[in-house]
Amino acid sequence: MNDQKQQSDSKSPDVKKPDVKKPDVIKPDTKKKKNDSPVPIVQVTSSPHLSDTSFTTQRMMIDVLIALLPVIGMSIYVFKIYAVKQLLICLVSCLAAEVVFVKMRGKSLSITDCSAAITGLILGLSLPGPAPWYVGFIASFVAIGIGKVIYGGLGMNLFNPAMVGRAFVMIAFAGSMAASGYLDQASAVDAITQATPLDTFKQAGEVTPLFDLFVGLTNGSLGEVSAIACIIGGLYLCIRRTASWEIPAGIIASVVVLGLITDMVTASSGWNVLHHIFSGALLFGAFYIATDPVTSPLTPKGKFIFGVGAGAIIMLLRIFSGYPEGVMFAVLLMNALTPLINRWTIPTPFGAIKKAA
Amino acid sequence: MGLKIEGFEGSGTFEKGVHPPGRKNFSTDIPIEVIPTPKKVVLPMSQHIGAPCASQVKAKQEVTFGEVIGKAKAFVSAPIHSPINGKVLKAANVTLPNGRRVPAIPIKAEGDQLEGKALMDEIFGGDWSKDCAGKYDPKAISDAINDAGIVGLGGAAFPTHVKIMPNEDKPIDALLINGCECEPYLTPDYRMMIEFPEAIIAGSLLAGHAVGAKKIVIGIEDNKPKAVESMEKAAAGTGIKIARLKTKYPQGSEKHLIMSVMKRKVPPGGLPIEVGAAVSNVGTVAAIAGAVLKKKPLTHRVVCVTGAGINNPKNLLVPMGISYGELIDFCGGLTKDAARIISGGPMMGFAFADLSTPVTKGASGVTILTNKDVKKADETACVRCGRCVDVCPLDLVPSKLAVGSRNSNLDVVQKYNIMACLECGCCSYTCPASLPIVQLIRMGKAMVAASAKK
Ligand code: SF4
Ligand code: SF4
Questions:
Q1: What is the pTM (predicted TM-score) of this model?
Q2: Is B101 helix (H, G, I), strand (E, B) or coil?
Q3: Which atom of ligand 2 lies at the shortest distance from residue B398's CA?
Q4: Residue A129's pLDDT is what?
């Protein structure tokens, strides 16, 4: 069939700039039709002529918003006004940034695809509640501007925009983002008066009860405190296949393996592998941040490698670095490796002999 | 699961692929009807893959039903016969739905014609002997197929005698008969299996004998239990096995049928014979039976006219060269919301607009979709979700092929094996960003072909 198609295709004169969006609209040749049935407009476009409308880019974005609901709910329950304020700042700033930058580049508006809203919420959820307003504001503009629009908008960015924004403020406003930034002794909100579990452990060797970590009655970034909320939303994403399960599976698998090894080496600390999984941004990062399709690999195998890599980096940072938490760096590092992973994991075409790598 | 057919390792399915809505209900239960002889047929001289035919007739010449109109000039080609009695008109060019412009011979109907039941009996009627295959010399079967101008009726239109011929070097373990009809909407193969199973069995035996196949298996998707039953009844005592395959698109692709039944993978660019298989379609083998047992050339075929955009969907026995417009008129015309006329099914068929376009041997039907059917989400940027990779039945990376084609990047598209793509449409069907991946891939292939010529 190939000959036939190639011949027909070589006729399309303009190979470089396909006008692929608009189907030609041609009236059918009706000269030979005697009955005067209505003459519909007939479109001529390329096959296939059906598409799966139950799964679209917009639907994926809406899925993420739905999946974020339990996490947002928990964060508001735990951090009260701190959460509401921070999330609103980031959400509004991200949407504003999208409008400003996209206008500047003269592109049509892409607010409706919800991706800026998602970046805003995820960014907000990854910040400490007490951080001053300008931290969220600046992080949002960096996330959308440098994280996304500069690359050409949705789908073109190399790094997870929310994490780019967060990394920027983490360096620029080290004080507000360091362990002490999570604390406000004078606060009326309980959680904020305690140090984060990872920090308590790092500094004082004190172990937070697993149950508190699981439900989320601890201090931390807004979205990360409740393991159960992340798991509920995350499972929804995986079941909808909006997020690829290979990524959280990879992360959790490698954290478990490395966590067990550390358990064996440092047996008595009381901080075991479950603490690793339920504490900090691990689950939030595994289900919501690392699974951003744009900045993770294409193939299932690649996705799993991505997850394992991210999990390993998280553990290395947690155990050996001065920072109590490493999810953000892990995701950014793996984002950078994604093109490479994609190249390693080109699937062997059906029936082809595997090339010796 | 497994097929549980002795000697076959297939699991009845293959990896990846998609599940588009079947939508066969428009025409599944409507028996094949004979369309009245048209006033004129237009016979394109190239209705198949391979060299075009040379016209054997002159304008004003009288021709009769079954007479050779175009003669094959090469091995990979197939002659063309007149489906009616009449007079030859001046040759002209026509554009086929796939966009190719080819010379064609119009014939005006004159004198008496075979109509209705008489025509049906002529083509599919009578007894189909199931035990005479052995009497024929394999070469004679292949020659009869060649003389009858038979090509793959499932859509590929590859000259059948090239596939169905004796060969010494590579033993054929199995002849697979494709009764999957995995394209949504289409029903002609299904109707053939219900109405003329004997012809299919006779043809399968002849084809199997010609290629020296040790076994013959007819593959049918498990959403067509009546076809399975009908074929099982007709196959009783012949040794032909019926394989119930998982309903999944593209189950009827040659490579995937072989995978599902035999668990063997045809390499990219390779032929089924390389893994000891031969594949033919149910409609094609029925035509083989007619060619060998009754010396009938391929002049008519069964098509369906279906979809929500046609008033009375039907299955029809039509002469080659009849215009699509006449089929549509015979089926009550288009509905008000008809939006797209497709030669073939919605996944791989060609949309076209000129209703005077003639039906060719490879056309399995016309599907008319409405605005509602073809609606899709607005195109967005590729979100690199990998869904296309998850469904590509040939294990390609469609998103890379699309980007490479769009940027005219020859290296990228070749590195990602663009030529292996079968244009099945699974990727575009699934893509959440509604990217026209297949269209881009076609352009990329044209680019590769053009660069190869340089
Ligand atoms: S399915 Fe579409 S959006 Fe997803 S990776 Fe493939 S081309 Fe991109
Ligand atoms: S790349 Fe080709 S073979 Fe793969 S799904 Fe798309 S059309 Fe089918």
A1: 0.86
A2: strand
A3: 1
A4: 83
Band of the pLDDT at B119, cuts 50, 70, 90?
Answer: confident
Give pLDDT tens digits for A152-199.
777 888 899 999 999 998 888 877 777 777 777 666 676 777 778 777
Give the CB-side neighbour count of residue A351, counting CA atoms within 13 A: 23
Give the per-residue pLDDT at B216.
92
* Partner residue facing A244 (CB), from B336, B386, B446: B386
* CATH architecture observed for domain A57-344: Orthogonal Bundle (1.10)
Contacts of B243 (CB under 8 A, 6+ apart): B3, B5, B8, B10, B12, B217, B218, B219, B220, B260, B261
Percent share of chain B, pLDDT over 70:
98
Contact residues on chain A for B380, CB-CB shorter than 8 A: 57-58, 113, 154-155
Chain B contact for A21 (CB, 8 A cutoff): yes
Distance CA B310, CA B312 (A): 6
List pLDDT tens digits, range B372-404: 888 888 888 888 899 999 999 999 999 999 999
Please name each of the domains of chain B with its CATH number: 1-37+114-375 (3.40.50.11540), 387-453 (no CATH)
Non-local CB neighbours of B264 within 8 Å, separated by 6+ positions? B258, B275, B276, B277
Task: Provide the β-strand partners of residue B221.
Answer: B245
- One DSSP character per residue, A65-126 reads HHHHHHHHHHHHHHHTHHHHHHHHHHHHHHHHHHHHHHHHTTPPP-GGG-HHHHHHHHHHHT
What pLDDT is stored for residue B361 in this prediction? 92
Chain B residue numbers with beta carbons less than 8 Å from the beta carbon of A56 are 377, 432-434
Task: Provide the 3-class DSSP secondary structure of residue B317.
Answer: strand
> d(Cα B3, Cα B289) in Å, to the nearest integer?
28
d(C-alpha B72, C-alpha B56), whole Å: 10
B22 with B252: CB under 8 angstroms?
A: no
- Residue A139's Cα: distance from chain center in Å? 16
H or E stretch including B77? Answer: none
Q: How far apart are CA B202 and CA A302, in angstroms?
A: 50
Taking an 8 Å cut-off on Cβ atoms, the answer to whether B354 and A29 are in contact is yes
